[in-house]
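Check this:
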Amino acid sequence: PVLYFPSSSFHSVCFCALFVFQERLSEWISELQERSENIEDLVSELELGYNTVEDHCRDSEEVMEAQNEEMMALVMEQYNTMSLSMEEEKKAKLEQLYDQIVSFQESIDQTKVTLDTTAREADIDPDTQVRDTHTHNTV
C-alpha cells in the first residue's frame, strides 16, 4: 500500500516537518549556545582562580625571600658578634699567658741572680765556707 497524499497535503506535511525540524534545530542551537556560555564562564573562573593562585605564590615567594634575607642578616650579625667575642677572649687569654711567661721568666732571672750571688759569696769567703762546714760537722 502506498500512501497517497494530495499535493497540497504533502506540501503541508513537509512544511510541518520542516517547521518542527527548524524548531528542534533552534532548541539545540540555543542549548549549545547556553553550554558554550557556561563553558566560557567556567574558563573565566578557572583563569581567575589560576591568576589568583599565581599572584598568591608570587607574594609568598617575595615574603619568603625577605624573611630569608632577614634571617641571613641576623645569622651573619650573630656570627660576627661571636667571632669578635671569641677574638677578644683569645686575645685576653694570650695576654694572660704572655704575662705568666714574663712573670715566670722574671722568677727564673731572679733565681739566677740569687744563685749567682750565693755562689759568689761562697767563692769570696772560703773561711766562712770552711767555718760553716766545720760548724755543721761539730753540731
Notes: The radius of gyration is 57 Å.
